[in-house]
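Q: Hi! First time doing this. I have a protein sequence and I read that you can turn it into a structure. Is that right? Here it is:
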Amino acid sequence: MKFTIGNFLVQEIRFGANTSYKKGLLTINKSEALAVVCEDDHITEADLYLVHPGDDVRLLPVKDAVEPRIKLDGAPLFPGVTGQMVQCGEGITHALKGCSVVVVGQQWGGYQDGVIDMGGEGAKYTYFSQLHNIVLVADTDEAFEQKELQKKNSALRRAGLRLAEYIGSAVKTMEPEKMEQYEMVPVADRVIPLPKIALVLQVQSQMEKPGYNTLCYGWDCNHMVPTFINPNEILDGAMVSGSFMPSSSKWSTYDFQNFPMIKRLYQEHGKTLNFIGVILSNLNVESDQKERSTLFVVNMAKTLGIDAAIVAEEGYGNPDTDFTSCLVALEDAGIKTVGLTNECTGKDGRSQPLVYMHEKADAIVSCGNVSELIELPPAKIVLGNLQALARDGMSGGWADDELLGPSVRPDGSIIMENNAMFCGDQVVGWSTKTVKEF
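A: Yes, that's right. Below is the predicted 3D structure, encoded as structure tokens:
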């Protein structure tokens, strides 16, 4: 499979008469863009804002982020979700780099929603502060979305997907400024005398009710068993982020589209390793489900002749058992394995960082502590609803605390756990965090 991304680097975004791109300037027809958003009758109110790195702007509750793209063959950007089922990972897709569509709730947040600060101290905690962002702030008529702690956010998230495709259409017929090419020849045809490496992605899929989990070609990942997938498919829209997971642990749709760990393995392919591909796994609740997924991952790895694996976990807590069990089972099969995850120590720092630990899981890269307290000053502009952090059960925020007080203070400053920072742990490979020894 050969997949090409034609890139256009966005350096400035404005509203204007036509949706177009020229020499780094992206212009968006706001009324047309909002018409695309409001194709879903559940959207009751919507507006668009443009924010840039360094702006004194706070966004919350953030639902998802999506890179604007368009496929040149007319296929939907997210097959099985925004259109018919077609193969991802082949052909040419054009992408607007350096920007994203960020979906924000106008009123209601929930456990899985997050915060992005575009400027100041808070900007360093999330990759998305580095991008020029088209911010969709919208509300829906779904009463369920207002009252429940766990929200599907379906109408809002899908509106963001449609909007990203509409904006991407600005560059459909243009000559790209830079090209990325990714090609995977069949495993059986490779003669590469280097260690065979697989990337195991444990995507968020704990909810048994439909509508919350990460989607693969529109299919709820809770309902699948681990499967072998070409990495090109992941980079080309096969995966859509789910709504369930504390925000710092989430992998946004933008993350899947640009997965840094996949791109890094591609860079080393044929030089230091033989990148076999991706084993797409899931995170489960019941013990037998966890055991079944581990069995499938290990059997695929052995069948493919894998020498080493990287296992990345989207989440923490209950999923730590899936994560550690997979590491141990791969090691038992003679496959050297490295894990990528965050950790949770609790506000007092005394909790065991992973729910389940094992002496054989002795090579783990920590991408940060979800419980780390973050204190940030007021922002000049808030897009969305600041009170969502305290009022709506956002993971990492609280209405009041005996020692720390409320997450949202009267002056607009906030205190929260890293849990509430949108995709803040950056397990996919964006992270610039480092370890300090005391």
